[in-house]
Amino acid sequence: MAVQQAAVIGAGTMGAEIALVIAEHGVPVVLKEIAPQYLERGLRQIDALLQRRVERGRLRTEEAQAARARIHPTLEEQALTTVDFVIEAVPEQLALKQAVFRDLGRLTPPHAVLATNTSSLPVHELAQASGRPANVIGFHFFNPASVMRLVEVVVTAETAEATVATALAFARQIGKLPVRVRECPGFLVNRILVAGMVEGMRYQQEQRAALDAVDRALREQARVPMGPFQLADLVGLDIVAEIGGILEAAYGERFQVPPIVRELVAQGRLGQKSGGGFYQPDGTPLPLGDQPVEGEQLVQRVLAAGFLEAYRCLEEGIASPDEIDLAMQAGAGWPLGPLTWAEQQGLPRVVALLQRLAATVGPRFTPPASLVERAARGEPLRPQPTDTPRSGGA
Ligand code: CAA
């Protein structure tokens, strides 16, 4: 059944933009907040995005007005008693989100899907808090939520298949590309993206390289849309520090975010949302280095780190090979998925690169034994189409 009425809890940067995406696709959406000033801030963001779309000729004025009219801002929890699909997008604090899920379990109709946009907290713990874990699922958007096509649909051990089916269908209903992901810390895309981001930042620190030279080299030579410092400014340095901390606790030092990120957070430099992070609002980079970049080294380190994490996700059964690649393209704008990158290089060459990086940069690049064996056997990363049986064959 198509979703007739949706709700978004929390009108922050992500929540407001998610509500807009839903409304633009014809679905009425309740936007719930706890205080009028938060609601007003979210509505201002929505109006600014709509105005920009109209100015750029992406929407007609009547379409923008119709989308805006489908958004029902409220402070009242009673507005949640008739919704079919709820997306929680409150700040990333477990206790706060658990309280929201307790309320959702109590207020929403029994059939309602209770989804969370969390980027790093355990979905199954929110599910427990709701009292109806079969209805709970991760529904993770990527920044900017109205532009990036991906939604990670994060499935816990207790999520019902009917909930998964509704979430996949609703993502498509609102113009997104869903990828089904098995729950693990960091899910799929952030594991791969942050592995590459941290590696780019480490390179900058070791080489005392200019930030903008690092970003430029990755844009020009790896053809990714943003280098690590631009990306951190877009996502928010506080979020990078938080996700990095969760990933490091779960998987180890390969996710160790350089201390400068937390130092800047402590200074209130959070990125675009606070008027500057690694870059000033006028685009000037912080003077954290001035050395030139050896582009090939940098690109190899970043892509190898991303591939290694993608390979681990593949081995752990987090997503299918095709969906791993698709997710990095639709969620982070990579020109190629990491597995396709490795296939194009050839697995034996990738293994040799990882071994060289393990010896020269750090043991975090050590290729897993299964990868070394796979490359030696000439076994591909994804199942190949089976040979058609020969006529007359058994
Ligand atoms: N908010 C909303 N819309 C924005 C935006 C923003 N911050 N920045 C750009 N846009 C819109 C523009 O209005 C424009 O829309 P139209 O095509 O309708 O005119 C469109 O995006 C393209 O913008 P530009 O032409 O100005 O810029 P661009 O070609 O450089 O693209 C980008 C901008 C889409 C952000 C691109 O740089 C990109 O893909 N970057 C990678 C972003 C990424 O990796 N996101 C994932 C981060 S991880 C995450 O979010 C998960 C998490 O849990 C933290």
Structure commentary:
The protein is an alpha/beta fold and 394 residues long. It has two domains: 6-182, Rossmann fold (3-Layer(aba) Sandwich); 187-369, Orthogonal Bundle (N-(1-d-carboxylethyl)-l-norvaline Dehydrogenase, domain 2). 51% of the residues lie in helices and 10% in strands. The chain has helices spanning 13-24, 36-55, 61-69, 94-107, 123-130, 161-173, 189-207, 211-222, 228-235, 237-251, 259-266, 295-315, 321-332, 338-345, 347-360, 369-377, and strands at 6-9, 29-32, 71-74, 85-88, 113-116, 136-141, 150-155, 177-182. Helix 5 links the parallel strand 5 (113-116) and strand 6 (136-141). The longest helix has 21 residues, at 295-315. The radius of gyration is 22 Å and the shape is globular. Bound molecules: acetoacetyl-coenzyme A. Acetoacetyl-coenzyme A binds at residues 52, 56, 58, 119, 142-144, 146-148, 190, 193, 225-226, 231, 235, 239, 331-333. Acetoacetyl-coenzyme A binds next to helix 7, helix 9 and helix 13.
The small molecules bound here are: acetoacetyl-coenzyme A
Q: What would CATH call the class of the largest domain? A: Mainly Alpha
Q: What amount of the residues lies in strands?
A: 5-15%
Average pLDDT works out at 96
Uncertain residue segments: none
Radius of gyration, taken over Cα atoms and rounded to an integer in Å: 22 Å
Classify the secondary structure makeup into a structural class. alpha/beta
Spatially, the strands of the biggest sheet line up as 3-2-1-4-5-6-7-8
- Summarize the main sheet: 8 strands, mixed
Shape: globular
CATH topology label of the largest domain: N-(1-d-carboxylethyl)-l-norvaline Dehydrogenase, domain 2
